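Re: that chain you flagged

S.,

Sorry for the slow reply, it's been a week of failed gels. I finally had a moment to sit down with the sequence you sent. For the record, here it is as I used it:
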Amino acid sequence: MLNKDLGIKNKDLGIKMDSMLKKKKTINLDYIGLDIKGNILRNLSPERLVEEGLVNKETKMSMNGAVMVDTGIYTGRSPKDKYFVEEELTKDNLWWGAVNQKIDSSVFDDLFDLVKDFYNSENSKTYVFDGFGGADKDHRLPIRIIAKRAWQAHFANNMFIRPTDDELKDFNPEFTIINASDISNTNYLKHKMNSETFIIFNLKEKIAIIGGTEYGGEMKKGIFSVLHYVLPLKNILSMHCSANVDLDNKNACLFFGLSGTGKTTLSTDPKRLLIGDDEHGWSDNGLFNFEGGCYAKVIRLSKKDEPDIYNAIKHGALLENVVYNDKTNEVDFNDGSKTENTRVSYPIDHIESSLSFRGFNSTSDHPKNIIFLTCDAFGVLPPVAKLDINQAMYHFISGYTAKVAGTERGITEPVATFSPCFGGPFLTLHPLRYAELLKDKIIKYGSKVFLVNTGWVGGSPSSGAKRISIGNTRMIIDSILNQKINQATFRKDDIFGLMIPDNLEGIDSDILSPINAWMDKEKFQIESEKLSKLFKDNFIKYGDEVDYLKVGGPV
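Prediction finished late last night. Pasting the structure tokens below so you have them in one place:
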């Protein structure tokens, strides 16, 4: 049944099985102190990775040939358990604090010995993925992922750039992640750590170790954090954003935005091609995707509303922590009883409207437009505003959106959320470093920057106001991409200093000017000033070194 479902000929599968199961260690792991006794299986095909997961009873077969895995007690990242070794290379560069916690090299050495002992004493299979972070061959990072679970190698194969056979011949990793999710740190109190779980990066030694958590996202975001460190030091901007281009791979656009702002939905456009949905770099060559796949949320996934993601769930895809029927293995995407963070990883060429599906490398020219998405639940920001260079830096560092009342217990009115550079949990350098790079790129390549509010206008959700329709937002995005918005006349907002278009084809002018949409003008003023103060209070924490950027924020 399995062979039939996967469309693999029995004869071919048998040959692959025989050759791969006999495969001994073919790569040298002495550089990290590993002397593995069991078989090392390197860069297996998707068919073999699927089979290994099933044979090991790590995964179960699901819809359309996709497989399912449960990641144990951790169904999301563990930010309080992520650390960076403080040493000469990084101590003056890293943005130390809650995101990048310091740890002494002696603690890393203790836990690294624990990881090595685990691998060297285990006689089970070891899975290795060699590949790249970054689609631009001039700036990509050769990476190695080592794991004891087949599904973790499957995840790495989905998410990172897969190498050619020729590229594997003389492959030399510049960063290695050793995943030892089966072990934990029982001495964490002695080490002054948060828990038995650890994700530790040693940038000097170019190694990261993981223990106590199976969650695959630690590997994905781990490499992202490394790229966030190494690329800006080469004057390459690393970004947490989605990106698309027109059908001729021109007129590229970047979409920044936190969860719930519509980043995935709006960057998926039937008239355009997806470069990537989450992580990108911007060098003098242009834009490039960091990843070879997508890692999409599937909670309440609908084939009608999100057909690209739904149709990507097929052979090669890996579903995480979904609820399914034990008898039929049918997935219930509406059931969040395990977690609201149900996910699926798949190669990006599973998306038919992607550059990768068309056979192109996931790279493009410099973006003509940059869009900062926010979901303003205070109802006071305009649906679209043009930003000057200082405003672009200010709003990039701020990374604002708002939680809607009722989405979490205890939230009865809108709550402002700020995440620097729209990706605070993954930054390794001070936000100003990324903002300065953004400024340099915008000036050098003439990109236009817009703030697009996908939230409410005319009041907050609790007041009965309606959210801006997806249709109106798409028309606004279209006017940006086809440059018609540049023909509009603009006026300056009195509170936030934003340049708002007086009119746009197809859009009600009352929507474009938020105060016109409010019945209670005094209430609008109060809510606007409230949000303005939140912006200013948030910005104080970045210190005097970015004080000059206040000219780009609320007046």
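What I noticed first: The two ends are 66 Å apart (CA to CA).

Talk soon,
D.
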